[in-house]
Amino acid sequence: MKLFKMNVITLSIMAVSGSAMGADFGVGNANLSSVNQSKYECKRCGDSNGYQGSISVSVGYNDISDIHAGNALGTAEDGAIGAVSGDVRYQGESGYRGQLQAHQLGMDNGFLSLSAGKADLYELTFDYSNLKTYQAGNVQSQLWHNNGMLTPSVSVNQFDLALEREKIGLGFDYGRDFYRASVRFSQVGKTGHQSSSIVTPSPVNFGLPVDATTRQWDAGLALKGDNWITELSYMGSFYENNINHLSLPHLNDVFTASPDNQAHQVSLAGQYQLNRTVMSGRLVTGRMIQDDDLIQMSGNPLQSWDGQVDTLDGRLAFTSMLTNRLRLGGSVDYSKRDNKSSVAEFAQYNFNSVTGAFRQNTPRDYEGNTYKVNASYRIASGYRIQAGYDRKEVERSFSEREQTNDDSLWMKFNVRAFDNFNINLKAEHANRGGSEYEANALTSSEQNALMRKYYLADRKRNAVELSVNHSPVHWMSLDINTCYAKDDYDKTQIGLTESEDYGYEVSVSLQLNKHVNAYGFAGQQRINSTQAGSQSFSKADWYGDIEDDFTNIGAGLNYGGLMQNKLMLGLDYLFSSSVSDTYVTTGVTRPYGDYYSYSHSASVYADYAVNALMALKLSYRYERYYDTDAAVTDINSIPGLVTLGDINHDYNAHQVMLSFSYKLR
């Protein structure tokens, strides 16, 4: 929680200003004793006290055949819809002020924010938001959920795969010249259904009910001086799952529920400026606790897990302007996770039989250090070069590879010397190494000794990025961004062996005349990866190639100044697609199954100013969405497998909305 915020520009000004910051040359401190201020009074400025802003009421109609359209249209309600939005501010003569912001209240996705208080003294806030995401509607399942019991049924149960998050928050801030204190409480309720599966003894997919609450407390105290700032804060989070373990009529506790848990964190942060050097630091200590009852079964010696993980994080950073051309910076980060959870002897299983051996669970610890140094040098006016070196050292206990070291060397080159041109080029080379990889030391014998997990394996990475901003004429702006990266896991025989990621983005903005604006953009990203596997539990005998392609294209136009500057017309269009193809080679290459989706989204609107205070807006929105996933099948199309049915999408959705807005002044 940041009570006093400083952006990068502010810090840069502080760093180059030196001792001049000791004197205040602000306009507010100018000597006006000999100036006749009445000659410079604003004759056209209005009184800012009172209410300002606008409110709007919208009514409309949805034509929706698939609830997935609610992700784009704001609500999955089919038929009449309505919403209220607004931004209203109040300023009193004695410094009292308030603000109300609302967006699409009454629809599935909206928020409300209220604040009131006295300037530079205190402020009360209230927040409410609702977010609902849709995966599929009318999903079929042969398991009914009723008070913790999953009941098989001959008839098919239908429900929606959707999750709703409702959040409320209360906050209070109080502060004077050199200090500020705050406290905040928030609660998030999460309800709905998500897909899950059990084996009874054949695999069965079902809709897992979701009903959970997360409560969070935040508090902080910040102090500041002429060239320093410090903050002490606390965060406490409490998660409660209202769905218990699930059972079948003939078998109890076949599905374990997410356990209740809590997390606490205390942090101390500060920043200090010494001439042209800015130093900052942070120290954070925390504890995560989980102590729910475990499902009791043969060979389980524990009644409850008694889980505890202690955390410690720290950061020290500095940036310094050595000369008007050269700036140096660096940072050191430390992170530690100390797992103090229960340790006990558990019976070992070999496929479906008990071996008779016992083995302790191994609570894994984590400790990491990250070191960064960088330099920025202005070669000449409009030319700047930056370079840096980053190193990350991680140690994991009871892991296949206990130590990994990631080293990265990067360089940036910026050119602003040419009129209407801004060019940025970045190149990076990274390498990961570490201790000896011991595949069988702490894993089951079913794992191939040649397999390497991608986040632990040796890796070489080369990447380059280029961005260009150009304004060839005063009414046109062009942005081009492109990037390429390749990861080579050259020592991996089984696992991910190579990954290639490249793409581009092009956008153009046009001011065709004083009444007509237009824009357009196009972007594409492609990710190709290769992995090797073994069916014979030895060296690689099959290979997989995965090709992911993402495309976005959009354009828009608005035309104002019509009907004596009262009417504005607009059009927006967006196309997006996602394609994922997988090919498997075992002597011959064949497709393994793919995923494909696309959507066309368009909106047309007309804004009409009835008078200086009132306006009407008529809009029409359209979405065409289609996807197909080779992994999705009908409920009983594969013998021995019960699915949730065909939840792919293929629909057209329409929305018409009329809005009335009123401006306060």
From TrEMBL:
Leader sequence segment: 1-22
UniProt keyword terms in alphabetical order: Signal
Pfam assignment, any one: MtrB_PioB
InterPro entries, per database record: Decahaem-assoc_OM_MtrB/PioB
Domain of life: Bacteria
Record-given protein name: MtrB/PioB family decaheme-associated outer membrane protein
Organism: Shewanella insulae
